[in-house]
Amino acid sequence: MGFLDVLLGRTKPVAPDLDQLFALPSAAVTLQAAASFTPTGTGSVCFATVEGAAFAEAREEVQALLDADTERQGPPVEAVRDEYGYSWLVSRRGPEDLPALVGDLHAVNSALESSGFGPQLLCSVVSFEDGGGDRRLEIVYLYKRGTFYPLCRLPGQQKRDNALELQMSALLKDDLRIEPDLSRWFPIWGVPGS
After folding, report:
1. CATH code of the domain in which 53 resides
2. What is the pLDDT of residue 2?
3. Which of 12, 26, 67, 152 is deepest in the core (most CB within 10 A)?
4. CA 7 – CA 132 distance, rounded (Å)
5. How many CA atoms, within 13 angstroms, populate the side-chain half-sphere of residue 35?
6. What is the largest CA-CA distance in the chain?
């Protein structure tokens, strides 16, 4: 970073650190012990859709890799395009199998990145619910920032529970690298599988 960058307030972009995803199982223990949120067994990776044979081939290879997992219980990985035109690969595991789910998300991100499609990766999402199933919580990993934030959507509405989000971020700050810029805590409506 040069002198002009410092004067003009420019900063180096944070490099993605996919290994941060492996902190999610310990964060899940914290969530369960302190707030009664447990994993639902669903996670997904969102990426900007790119047209072309190379991208389609990379996406199909990733999906085939995850579908070939002989220990997978439940439906295969599902490819979904949302109403905004973004693509999602959704993985479902047993709620008790969060480490395998995190491995799936890491594999998707790594495979797309190594195929040259890292710039298209947007985020990864892991879903949780409280003991009564009344409240949902998603932990969102921002690929380009290498950080996490909690997303607490109110049931049946396009509104968020901001107080709960702040409470969960304070709870998880020792387990996850929480995104410090709250303006980057984007609402993600219609997350497939959640």
Report:
1. 3.30.70.2860
2. 56
3. 152
4. 52
5. 24
6. 55
Q: In this structure, is residue 4 part of a structural domain?
A: no
At residue 164, the pLDDT reads: 95
Of 108, 29, 27, nearest to 67 by C-alpha is 108
pLDDT tens-digit readout, 68-109: 765 666 566 788 888 888 989 899 998 999 999 999 999 889
Q: What tens digit of pLDDT does each residue of 139-171 get?
A: 999 999 999 999 998 887 889 999 999 999 999
Domain of residue 122, residue span: 14-177
For 73, residues 6+ apart whose C-beta sits below 8 A from its C-beta are 93, 94, 97
Report the SS3 class of residue 190: coil
